[in-house]
Amino acid sequence: MVFSSGLKxxxxxxxxxxxxxxxxxxxxxxxxxxxxxxxxxxxxxGLSPTYIGDMRTCLxxxxxxxxxxxxxxxxxxxxxxxxxxxxxxxAQLEQMARxxxxxxxxxxxxxxxxxxxxxxxxxxxxxxxxxxxxxxRIEPYLPPGTRLWGRSRVGxxxxxxxxxxxxxxxxTVKAWGPGWVIKRPVPAxxxxxxxxxxxxxxxxxxxxxxxxxxxxxxxGQQAAVxxxxxQALRQNLVRPVAAFGPGxxxxxxxxxxxxxxxxxxxxxxxxxxxxNVRVRLxxxxxxxxxxxxGQTVDVRL
Length: 301
Hints:
With 301 residues, the chain is α+β, with helices and mostly antiparallel strands. Helix content is 28%, strand content 28%.
């Protein structure tokens, strides 16, 4: 039996080392290898084919594992490198859209709220699966038929690049301001009073119809539908009180150049000040005029 310091196995005289012994002892110095393997195979430069085959059999699984490991590390690194730049590009595009939206939104909110609204913008994000080609000049814009009010979107298009791409970024515009909120149940058809509502801050852009911020626009008006506590007073929820109902006797006034004619008639529909109404005259003729007050309808000749 031959023993060598630093070797993990025992090599019997005249027998080639096994796979585990060869692999374990590859790290032994060249002088040590000569002293160990010389008695079995002669000089190391003349290793027998059998021993070389044993070494190949031993190292093949390690080489395969190493190849798979390197391939995995490379693919992981490339994927990380490709995805690493995308968030920065998206952040730049989102910031560009935000910089464009802020002044446009302030102008839109000011026009709708008379300067009493506090604007707030919530920017969405682009689809992270997008791969946009490099572009030298990008233009934000508002798509046709879109307004910066409530849920909306902003377009971003490439004007100078190999590929002229066009993407859309979602945006939500809020407009906070005072509005009137119903504080007790109001049946449909009831005439609204100041005590039926109270002031509260609300998002005007969230409402489907115009908010009635001025009490003069709803006090004395009729509830078009039943109103519930917490409901914001909007234009579609109130209507003027009729000055007279169908069948009422009214005066029909017509004014011409230097003369005025007033005749009697019967209202065929309810008359609301400022709105049109149909009236049957005493002779049977039906005319359409505008309600002036509770007793008069103006007809143009």
